[in-house]
Predict the structure.
Amino acid sequence: MRTLLTLIACALLLAGCSKHAAPAGRWEGTYESGDTFVAARLEISDGLVRVSAPDVTDDGLRDESERAQMRANMAARLAGAWGEIEPRKMDFDGTTFRKPGGIAPQITWDPETKVMTLWVYLGTNPAIKIPLRPVSAFSDDPWTH
């Protein structure tokens, strides 16, 4: 009986130490609130992460046509820079991606709901959490769903 309990305890310990595989796929999403715009892409392949989230804050936008132009500008910036984004390693604990050795969450993954959320840090403001939607291919305009 003691041997069985020891084996169970060892199995649980090893299971807790196992490396979690990052989900593979592509996601994109946007954030717009007041004068802040963020367009985001995320790709995870072979455990490496590519992420881009250009942002702009412009309190000079006065009407919907200016806001629409800003959304188009952000979509173009996102698509134009994507080819330059290098894949990188991130620490992943099964739900949270962090820079290697880092503390702040960069991306969170809910394995039950399959929701990926990108955390964007702008200055000293609280993180903006952007829910991303899975896509088979990135769109030219991430504001369209």
In short: The longest helix spans residues 64-82. The longest strand covers residues 36-45.
